[in-house]
Each structure stands twice: as structure tokens, then as C-alpha cells.
Amino acid sequence: MSKISVTRRSFVKLAAAVGASAALTGTEAGVALAESSESSKPEVKRIRSCCRGCGKMECGVWVTVSDGRVVKIEGDESAFQSQGNCCTKSQASLQACYHPARLKHPMKRTNPKEEGDPGWVRITWEEAFQTMSEKFSELAEKYDGSSLFGMGGTSRIWSMAPYGALGNAMGGSNNKYTPNQVCKGPRWYATGMVSSNAFSFMAVVDRPKVYVQWGGAGEISNYDDSCRTVVDCASNADTYISVDPRKTNMGHEADIWNNVFPGTDAVLALSWAHVIIENDLFDELYVKKWMDAPFLVCEDIEPSGWTLPGRSSYDIKTRLLKESDLQEDGSPQRFMVWDTVGNRLVYFDASTGLWEGETWTPSTKGKEAAQDLPDGVVQGFVPDATGFGVEDGFEVEIDPALYGEYEITTKDGAIHKVKPVWEHYRSECAQYEPNKASEICGVAPELIEKAAKAYATRLDPSTGYGNGGIQYMLAVEHAGNCVQNCRCIDALTAITGNYDTPAGMRGPTTYTFDGELVGGMPDVMGGGPQSKLPQIGSEKFPLYSTYAPQWSDAETLMEAAHTGKPYPIVGGFCMSGDFMSMGNSLYNWEALKGFDFWVVADLWLTPTAGAADIVLPVWHWLEVNSPRKSQGSSGAAGATCRAVDPPADCKWDPEIAIGLFKAQGLPWAEGEGDEQWPNWEGVCNSVLKGTGMEWTEFSERFQKEGWIDCKKDNPDDWGTYRRYQTGKLNAGKPGFPTPSTKHELWSLVMESTYDDGRYNLPTFIDPPQSVRSKPELYDEYPYTMTTGRRIPVYFHSEHRQLPWCREQWTSPRVEMNPNMAARLGIEQGDWVWIESPSGKIRQVADLYYGIKDGVINCEHQWWLPEINAAGRGFELVEINCLVDRTAQDPCVGTSNLRAFPVNVYKATPENCPDGNVVPVGYDGQEMIHDSSDPRLKEWLPTYEGRDE
């Protein structure tokens, strides 16, 4: 096997030799060079593609291939959504593609599931599919299909089968362990309940006038707009506000920094809202017409309502005043408001999306957006905001009240006092006026007020919309209070008029194909027996079974694997996922080792694969063909296009899932014979159906013309803002796809699920292990830990075995304030122990004034590919080994992954196993912790033998 081994010194010598040969004189030398030039000239191709080196950002790239080998990856300047960005992870992808440790063949375990050698033996795909079919069928028959589950990861789009389809091939299981529960899912869940699903995505590409970056570092990587797009956005904004416990890389350039204490984001958001409301900086028209803010609350009546149709019927029961509360034949879907013009009650009808006396037609009057966009990017159409006048389709003008208390008589003759939802929200926010909020969230009162006013004060009122949305990210989901955090921020963007507006909250890009769910449920027929058992976690979290079951609760699932309750979990299939993403990693690892049968499809022998019975090799993104539409609000459509053929026996993830369906005798697609089990091209053609093109035509167009601007190609939907006025958000009716068809401050789903009213409004929930929730922990564990920050060369658990990446960042780091470090006797570069009641690990001290004294910032999902053990040394350095597995968000079960108490102390020979301060694996080898470690060279690309 040949490897790159040219050093700088040898390169200089080689260059000198080439230069000398070029200087040869004489006819013979010239003739010789001329004769050989054509034969030695390499075949070079440049392939336009979509990078998948991190998350789900759609960075356009050019891949240069020389003689069938990828030699360069660079940014595509014509890709408007990424502006030529090409980060370190993208460029290092060629090292992943040709990595000597890549899986190339299906393999099965021959040794017991201990820390030693699994005894991997190469097998054929035929044997792999037959074994999987037999074992999954056997276990489903013995225990039930739901005893099996699919585990997914960050997906790369084409490994989505664990999110849905895979369960059909495992006895009809409805259980799935997906990172949605800790990543984007809570934001989607929250917005899905109160506005529109995944409207947590912000159109950063539209360049807001005020850019708010909340709980993330999109300049490094993100799940929607990131890297250069975010940097350009912040640079061009009139004001850039950073909200984060630590000063992020780009945060050094922020105009305002709200250094919020971990886990208290909702307090800060409610405090901003208080400042905005009390200074009349909210969008009064949007709040009155498109939110439930004017709906009247009658606190002393019994809740009542109607059954909400959908994939699972859901009973709405609310104390919002309805026509049915006032008269016997009244509708429970007509919500009452007080009209200050007529001094009377009027209704809003959620069944039609119309106000009393309103006639609606989709908005067509408006103007082009006025954003500072790069040349050639379509602005989009902004419909004029509609009001309550006769010219807006009302029989008579009305003006819904936001303030005041009113006396009404219900149908039983009782007299009640009622107030608008807005009054209740205003009171909730007032509890966190800046001085009070500062005591909890740690941000100075004057900085809270400054940030809120900067965000909400319109810099160009003539546009008719706000300064931009809020790009809020993973940090708000990980403190055991995620749904309410997300609701608090969602409300902020709504009341300031930044919903479905330029640079506002726009949700997922819409186009003529989906492109996100290759292998997910929408494009799979399914079939076979379906489990009758309830989805894991549905009893613990009632929203799962009553509203929208998007995932199984990972903690309950792993507990069932240990205890057999509520029913046994005995195996499953993981596609590019890992057990370190949530919950306690040590507890999860023990569960995996106890499975009767476990399959992993991945590029590498990861820690998750260390517990597998069968491992399956998959394609790298440089080997994939797949259509791609922006997951977020970037508004782009394009494709990942194959640059090189995949090695040996590797398969595309959907083809692996399809192969299992075929082995189970289940159809994946419509058709006769083998049409039911399409190859990769057939899958792509299916996804592209809505475009009128098949893969060959679509990919050729993409190569020639580049990325599609969905605002241009889909003008009536993605190219139009304020779609709540056009019917595009609510199946042809005005408003939103919520029970009330309004953007809800008072959540009908939450009220109907929790009858004590605790979550009716956006509220602050203290993290389950804060100093206020569990003060007794802080005597022994006096510091607060946060984690999850973005690292320039890594993405979650990825790239630790790529030489270019690992030599730049050899060890996991824990940031701490130098003043804190000095008190603890810790210096820069020291290994330190980080310990909680649930576990302890080691990381390297990185002293940084950009984080508060008393707070530490650790790195997550570390594992050590160089450690020759089944778990690959994760237990030595992975911060989620410290997680209290029982500490969860009370609504959707998201793990409390940060904002919990720890102790920190210096690692010494006296307090380390066998005196080894540097973590050592079971094989006695130290982890790589120095960029000069010769083991890094063993991971250099291998070009020969790819087909062996």
C-alpha cells in the first residue's frame, strides 16, 4: 500500500531536481520532453458538489480529481448560500475518503463483547443480509418488534432510515434513538406546537440589520447557515449581538455581549421581552392579528374544547374564552376577543382562520424585499401587512384589545373577569425585569436593556418588518429546560415582527423536492406487521403519545435495555449514529454490550461499532450521488455528486436499508419484481419526482448551472414572505398550522397536556441541577459545566482520526478562567480531572478570560481511534460520562447535557491510574496528545488497494 510520505525537505530536493531537468539544453532533451508530455499529462476533472464534512450546512464546493484521485476540495464562489466557503473539515475530507482505517467490507464478530479484540471476520453482503433478517425476525417474534430500535446520527441526509423506515424491517418497531431529541428537535417541537414546525431556522443569508447569535458558533459550523455566511452576516450588520456563556470566536467582534449563565436563557429572553413591551417596541399589528395575544383568558371556568384531527387525534381543552362558553350552540373553535372600536366581544374562528365579519383572499399587493444581498441573489416578495379595516376584507373595522380586564357572562349565567393573553404574557415577562433577571442569568441589567432595545428598535421602519430573527442554536436545548427556552426565544422573534420576513424566522426551505429524507418514511412503502406496544417514553412524557411522537426517549430506552421495563430492548440497527450523543455514555455503553443482536453501518470502527455483532461499510460523501435542498432557511437546492468510486464492498446507506427490506420480503417502493428495491439512482429519481427530472438530467444541470435559488424557482412559496397571509403555511387557509391557527403565546397543546397550567405561557424552568434546584450538590461539586462548543477541525464525534485535524487539536480541552485556575494550582496545558456524581474524565486545561470564573467549558463526544479497544477509549475523555441520566427536560426528555455541577482538580501521578497523567487505553498505549506523535502518519491516505 502506498502512502503520502513526502516531507518538506524531500519536496524541496524533488523540486530542485525537477528544475534541473527542465534546464537541460539540446534538441534531444526537448524532443524527449515533447514526446512524453501527452502520455504523462493527468486527466483532471472539476466536479461541482455539496460538502458533507459537517452537519447539514449546504456548502457548495468544487472537487478536483486527477487520474481518478481526489486531490483538492475548494469553495464554489457561485454558491450564494455559502459564498465560496470551504472549511478545514471540508478540505480534510479527502483524508477521510482514503483513510487506511475505513471499513471496506461487511464483518461479523467472533469474540465475546468485552473490551478486547472483537475478532472481526470478513463476510459477504449476502451473509450479512441473511443474518440480519434471521436475527431481527427471531427477536421480533420472541419479544415483539418494538424490542428493536433504529439509532441515527447527524445523518448526512442519506442515512435517515433509523428516523423511520428502518423500524418496518425490524418487526414494525416504533422505537428510534435519534439525535433529534437533543439537536434541533426541541426547537422543532416547540415551534411546531405554537407556530410552524422548524421555524427556529433563521434566514441568515438575507443579512439582518441586527444579527443575534444565541448559544452557538456558526462561524465554525452549524446545522443551517454557517461559516463565511455567518461571518459576512455579522460583518455587514449594523449591530451584532452575541448571547453565550463564553466569548465565542466571532464573539470578540460583537457590539454587545450578553454572557448569560448556562441554563438561564429563558430568563434573558423574558427580560428582553419585558424591555420591548414596556418601551412599545413590539409589532402591534402582528401581535394583534396573527398571534393569540388578544384572546381572552377566563381562569375560573372549566377547560373545554374540541378534538383536533391529525395523525393522532388530540383533545384540546382550554380556559381561553370561546363562543361555546357563552352560548349553548356556540363553537368551541371560536375564540373571543374584546373589540375596542365596537366595545364588544367578537370572535376569531380557528376552523376557518377568519375573524368575525372577515372575507379573506391571499395577499398579492406588496414590494420587493430591501436587503443588502450579494449580487445576483433574488430578494423575494414581501406582501403588505394587512390590518382590520374594511380595505382588509372586514365588514366593519375592529381593534382587538391587548390590555385591560373585562366582565363577561357565561352561558350558565355566571359573571367572570377576563383578560387578554397578552396581559398574562406581559406579567410573566415583568417577573424578569433586568435587575431581577441579572440576579439569575448573570448579565448586567444595562446590557440586557441595551441588547433588547438594539434588537427591537427598527433601523429602517419603511420596510414594514423587523431587523431580523434570532439564530438560536443547540445551547438552549441542553439544560433540561429546552422546550420552554425555545418558546421564550420564539416569542421574542414574533412580537418584534420577524416571522417569515426577510432575514427572519422562515423555517425549512420549500422546493419541488424534499431532499432531506432519503431513506426516511416519506419515500418508503413499508409494510409488514406493526408493533402494538407504545413507543418508549410515551408514558413518561405524555406529549409523545398525544401530540407528535417524533422520537423515543433515549433514556427510557436505555433503561429498558438494562431492566426490561416497560418491555425489553434487546437490539437494533445503527446507521452513522452513536450512543455518546445524549444521556450518560457509560450507562448507554453497558446497554449496548448486553444486546442480543446489534448492527452498525459506518465509515469506521467507532465506539458504537465496538458493541456490534455485524458492521457494514458505507460510502463517503465524495463517493455519493444525492439531491440536496437546504434543511434550514438558506433557500438553496443542489446536489452532492460523486467524485470517485467507493472502495471495495462499501454501499450507500439507503441501499443497505433497501437490502434489509428485500431480505425481509418487504417492498421499499412501488413496482414489480426488483423495482420494489431500487438502486441508488432509483432512489434519487424518486426524490426528484417533483422536478420533472431524473438524476442524470438534474445532476448535469447542476454541473452546468450551479445552485438553484429557491426564491427564484419557487416564487409563490419560498420566494414570498409573510406566507401566513397567503395560505402557504396552513394548507390554503390564513395563519399557522396550530390548533388556534394563530402564533400562540398561550399554547393550547401545552395547556391540554398539563392541566395545572404550568406551561401555558413561555416560562423559565430552572435547570434540574442548578444551584437553586439542587443546592446540596454544590458543596462537593462547586463549579458549573457547559459543553458543546464548536471546534474548527471537528464536528461532534467526527474527524479524530484525520491527521490534518488531529495534529491541530490533539486532545480534548476544558476552558476555565485563569483566576479560577490559579486558585486550583492549574496551569495552561495541565491535564485535569472533571468529576460529577455520575462519573469523571480527564481533559487538558485551556485558560481563557472569555469565560466566567466558576464556569468551565468542556468538549463533547471525544473518543480515541488510536486506542485498540472496543470502546475506543471514550470512557477516558468523553464529557457525557458525567451526565445524570435522570435529569431531563420535563416535556420531551432532552438530556441535561450542560449547566450542571462538577468538581475540577489537577491530574497528578498520585490520583491517576498507574500514575499515568495522560489517559492510557486497555492496551497500555497513551492517547495521542502531541502533534509529533508518529501514529498520525499511520493515518495518512492510502490510495492503492481500495478495491481489495
Automatic annotation (TrEMBL):
Its cofactor is Mo-bis(molybdopterin guanine dinucleotide). Belongs to the prokaryotic molybdopterin-containing oxidoreductase family. It holds the Pfam family Molybdop_Fe4S4. The keyword Membrane does not apply. The lineage of its organism: Bacteria, Bacillati, Actinomycetota, Coriobacteriia, Eggerthellales. PROSITE patterns: MOLYBDOPTERIN_PROK_3 (PS00932), TAT (PS51318). GO terms for molecular function: 4 iron, 4 sulfur cluster binding; acetylene hydratase activity; metal ion binding; molybdopterin cofactor binding; oxidoreductase activity. SMART domains: Molybdop_Fe4S4. Residues 1-22 form the signal peptide. Keywords: 4Fe-4S, Iron, Iron-sulfur, Metal-binding, Molybdenum, Oxidoreductase, Signal. It comes from Eggerthella guodeyinii. This is Molybdopterin-dependent oxidoreductase.
